[in-house]
Amino acid sequence: MDETFWKSFLWIRDIDPIAFKAPRTFLPTSGAADHADLLKAAAQVVGKLCAGESPLALPYSAGDFTAFAELEHKGQAPASDIRPDQDPLTQKRILEKAAQAHRKVSRFAAVWKVLAEAKRLGLTECERLRLFTDGEKEVLRVMRKQPLRHKEPMLVLDADADTEILAALGCDTRAEHELTLRPRAHVVQVHDHQMSISALLNSESHREGGRRVIAREVLRDRLAKNTGVLVGATRTVVQKFFEDAGHDFSSKSETEINQIMLGTKLHGARWLWLGGRSLGSNRYKDYSAVIVLGRQELPVSTLEDQGRALWGDTHGEPLNFVPMDMKGGQRLPLVELPYEMADGSGMAVKVPCHPDHRIRRVQLQSRELATRQLVERLRLAHAPYRKRVILVSNIPIPGLPVDELISWNELKGDRIDAAISISLVENGFARFKQGEIVENAPGVFDTIDALKGELGEKKSSAHLIRRFKQFAKPLGGKLRLRDCRRPPLDAATNWSVELLLPENAAPGPRG
């Protein structure tokens, strides 16, 4: 079984409270008294939840709640006969109608089953049932887990297996074996930005910084291994980068958009998104570098709903939920987490973590380990050489020892460097007159005045331009990708000088 199988056992469904209180159309008239009791109890349950009180305080026993659940199933619409002489579309329509009716009564019955189970445990609060407002609409949500019906021994092969989550599903773990393989990689991580989804979506500056990082790594790959660079982010962020580059998805379906983004190189790299899409694939195992922009961060309510489904209403172990603020939001507390440093040094950072240790396990699976899964598309444990991993988020990732902790500004690098590397990657050449620099790397400098301002503020940038002009002069003022020699793999000096030094040019003194 793979690393996502436990999620398929979570049963989280939404119900319209108005429909839950409404008369059941198909209950037999012979049970009118029971029907009236059911509707009265349904109204009381919703009323208690609306008032912020527990429905377990109502004068009903576990047996009463169970009887209500059984009555719900009796209210299912009678199924139409399916005959062999009917055309397939008619049969399909009948089956869909029957399935819809079954889903409706199953959700109603689940409310009573959850209350019956909590009552039987002697609880005073029911964690697996909650009422909330979504926009202008009220939603009644019920959270359960499906029973693990397989009793035969199972072998779980999972890089991210969590025994506490498995135990919540009913897995009786008899033996656990862990094999740790150190990744053969040079890991660079920013330490001063969480780089949330909203930060990347709402900040053109952050996305432009990401483009600069990508261009530098693609150029490094082109001049060395030339095997490819993979970029990962959440799907919404990936789509935003494609739209920034001029892709119009307005008339396309989600499937078509996915195919375009997976099959199209952008800024010289291949793109993938966090989650199920980045599991299991060996397509990128030969790539030399991977860049992860930001991280996947599920909303607090989503994390807590998954936690409610797994551990809710556990006797003697109530869950610890994040309280809502005055505006109805939930903010995770900051917790100091250590980085695993390649040199053994001690470094840590404060990042948002869920306060309940069980729900924190779910957060770890969906956030930190989702990043690790994407990085592992390069199959780092058995890589033939040290590959490069760039993490544009300060969340520590277990199993990825960090070689360099740097600031976001350091990672983005000099804008002149960025303009030249972008021009080389996207055009195949670079020129060094001011107008040409602006034109050939759009987005780095919007105008020549912006470029002049950069050169005036930073003498190192002006010096760099002079050096590039010197290198390109014998080549007609145009530096092409094929004119650059490959850098030594252990180069520790400024990347732009090492990467872009033409084969036949004298390097001159180092700055």
List keywords for this structure.
3-stranded antiparallel sheet, disordered C terminus, 18 helices
Main beta sheet: strand number and arrangement? 6 strands, parallel
What is the count of helical runs?
A: 18
Structural class: alpha/beta
- Cα-based radius of gyration, to the nearest Å: 29 Å
Report strand order across the widest sheet. 6-5-7-10-4-11
Instruction: Report the sheet-strand fraction.
Output: 5-15%
Helical content class: 40-55%
Q: Which of globular, elongated, flat, extended, rod-shaped describes the shape?
A: elongated
Oligomer: single chain
Rounded average pLDDT: 88
End-to-end separation in angstroms reads 55 Å
